[in-house]
Here is the input.
Amino acid sequence: MPSADLFLLVIFALCGLTFGSAANVLITRIPMWLDQQHEIASDAAPGPRGHRSQCPNCLTSLRATMLIPILSYVWLGGRCHFCQARIHWRYPAIEALASAWFIVCLLVYPDNPTQAGVWAFWGLALLTMAWIDGASYWLPDVLTLPFLVLGLVVSLLGLLTTTPTDSFIGALAGWSVLMGVGWIYRLRTQRVGFGGGDAKLLAGLGAWFGWANLPWILFFAALTGAAFGIMRAAHKGQSLRAQEPLPFGPFLAIGGLLICLHEWRFFGSQ
Here is the structure.
């Protein structure tokens, strides 16, 4: 690999670590903002607030040296410096996954760092939304709507193989399909099925990949979701009906990732 390419590889790896750390902040704080809104609506005593990163156990503000991606986790031995509580494994995992994904994107588009960067942030956004939904059953508009708009914009700029028309139709179809299915499910069962966040996420994926890929995204999402539900039921020794509903966002993200890899022809450039 030429030195310039190696330099870009290092830059992308470091950017992945940095933005992975930022994704951890969003994963931690966005559900907290939701809880605070519920507290305000119910007149409950508000929980702890603050702008600086802090230990979730002892609430001590963290020093800058304790926020270095992955290295701080290793240096601290996976424990808080102040109270010795275990640091959740999610923090280094997200940072490592983000860095690895940024590197993969550059390897797919070695001669086009702009396009590599676009797909790097696409994957990071998808990972962030999937993790938040998996943990809190919530896909916030503050993430799904920019993801949707960005898909339409990069399509207009010619950075996708999807045409702007297909992108727009994909966004509209993705939102309509899940909203329609969710409405029918609620009428028949009196239970909430798909939420509005799921519909907006699928609309975003439709904007990025076009309407023709939506059936495949839904197929892979349903397949992986069903497999996970069956394994969880078997592990707990319960029937599927007795299980709590699964968040659909992580499985939509898996469907989108598989389509992305297919578009790349399994790490071959388009």
